[in-house]
Amino acid sequence: MRPLDAGTLVLLASLALPAAATAQDAPPVAQAIGPRLEFAATAGATASYPDVGARASVVVDPRVSLEFAAAWMPRMWRSPAQVLTQAQVRVPLGSPGRSRYALVAGVSHVHALDRRPGDTGVFGTDDQVTLPHAGASFQWTLGLRTDVRLDTQLLVRAHSDVPVVPRVGVAFVWHSEGRR
User: Fold this and answer.
1) Residue 156 has pLDDT above 70, yes or no
2) How wide is the angle at C-alpha 178 spanned by C-alphas 100 and 107, nearest 5°?
3) pLDDT tens digits, one per residue of 94-125
4) How far is CA 82 from CA 21, 123, 162, in A?
5) With 0-12 CB in 10 A as exposed, 13-18 as middle and 19+ as buried, what is 69?
6) CB 66 within 8 A of CB 58
7) Given 3.40.190.10, 1.10.510.10, 2.60.120.260, 2.40.160.20, which CATH number is that of 37-175?
8) How far apart are CA 84 and CA 65, in angstroms?
9) Is the pLDDT of residue 160 over 90?
10) Considering 9, 12, 15, 46, which has the largest number of Cβ atoms within 10 A of its Cβ?
């Protein structure tokens, strides 16, 4: 082998080895999401009654968020138009990343707006009802400051023929800080 060929091989090997060594490093770890505010436009359904609304979320600790929501349910069938308000705690599961999963638990308040004689609906004939709820939240990144979120919940009616009322919602979320 000629000295020039040997030198070229040594130079190429020295350039290739650091690249090969870094290619075998561990994959980057997802960075934690810092404290922030989230605001969302929501659409969903409580039992079979559609709703539209808004949600605000405040991260009080990296592992806990406080959330407040309000939604309007239009008059439908024999159910009056109603306002649903919620306060809940969201507790993330697993490590933070591009997709996040959490458990939610809180209290829901439903207030009938225009009850007419004979109206019943999913919450019976009461003008107001306050119920505990629990569920899960799934959130995926769309952009630097935007996410999409799916919530599933069960509103608990302990003294009723129907002990739980299902609720599902989709939210388009804007948050105050982008990913780091």
Assistant:
1) yes
2) 45
3) 776 667 899 999 999 988 888 778 777 667 77
4) 62, 10, 19
5) buried
6) yes
7) 2.40.160.20
8) 20
9) no
10) 46
